[in-house]
Amino acid sequence: MNAVSGLVVVLSAQFMDESYSPNSKSLELSGNYSYDHNPEMETAIGNYFRVQFPSNWDDSEKYGFNWKELSEQPEPIARINYDSIKKINYPHNSYQ
Fold first, then answer.
1. Which residues pair with 42 in a beta bridge?
2. CA 36 to CA 44: how far, in whole Å?
3. Is the sign of the CA dihedral 8, 12, 13, 19 positive or negative?
4. Residue 87 near residue 95 (C-beta atoms within 8 A)
C-alpha cells in the first residue's frame, strides 16, 4: 500500500489530475458514491484514487515553467545519455 500511495503522490505532484486519455472529453453526472465524500479531496490521475492537494504553499515552494519561453528553445527537453552512465556490476547481473 505504501508503494501505491507513493506512486499516486508522485504522479499527482507532477501531473495533478490530468488523465491523458486517448478518448475525447466527456461529461458524467452521478450521485451514487461508495466512499465518504470529502470536499477537500480531488480525483487523482487515472481516476482510481483521491488526493488532497496542498493549499497553503507559497509560490517560492512551487516549481513552474513558462512553456511559451521553453517552446521557443531548439531543445526544450533535456535528454539523458544512458549509454554514458557507468554500469554497476551486481552479482546477479546477467547482462554484463
1. 51
2. 16
3. positive
4. no
